[in-house]
Write a structure and sequence with these properties.
The chain is mainly alpha-helical and about 130 residues long. It has nine helices and no strands. The protein binds iron/sulfur cluster (2 copies).
């Protein structure tokens, strides 16, 4: 999947704006991943998602399944010793993906079909009800 992101740091900037989180506060202790109930199904562990954001490894991050499998349970947020909300960062990455224009200019309806699995809807619902 190819996305139009103008500079290497565009994704980081947008995700920080949407989530209100400081990606660089994370010091990679791994407590978030150790408590994540979905980690066995993920192709990247939650702490690896934040590491890729720090490194600006956009392509790898945007192609991963993890961001769509995150159930927004807030376990990682509660466990983080640095007060980083990975839950919000995951949602930020999902939103950037959904909002960014693809090079082949697919319609929003097609994009929705391709990129909006049920878990994203459930995550949004949880966010507004917890
Ligand atoms: S628990 Fe917090 S500081 Fe530790 S790796 Fe996860 S996000 Fe980073
Ligand atoms: S919010 Fe997502 S990443 Fe965090 S523990 Fe829950 S499922 Fe895992």
């Amino acid at each position: 999947m190819r996305l139009v992101l103008k500079r290497q740091d565009d994704l980081l900037k947008k995700v920080e704006e949407i989530s209100g989180e400081n990606v660089f506060a994370c010091y990679q202790c791994g407590k978030c991943s150790a408590g994540c109930p979905m980690s066995t199904e993920m192709d990247l562990l939650p702490n690896q998602v934040i590491r890729l954001l720090q490194l600006g490894a956009n392509e790898q991050l945007l192609d991963c399944r993890t961001i769509w499998l995150c159930a927004s349970c807030f376990t990682c947020t509660a466990r983080c010793p640095k007060g980083v909300s990975l839950t919000r960062l995951m949602e930020g990455v999902r939103l950037v993906l959904l909002r960014t224009t693809k090079e082949d200019q697919v319609s929003p309806k097609e994009m929705e079909k391709e990129f909006l699995p049920q878990v994203a809807l459930i995550s949004a619902l949880r966010k507004f009800t917890t």
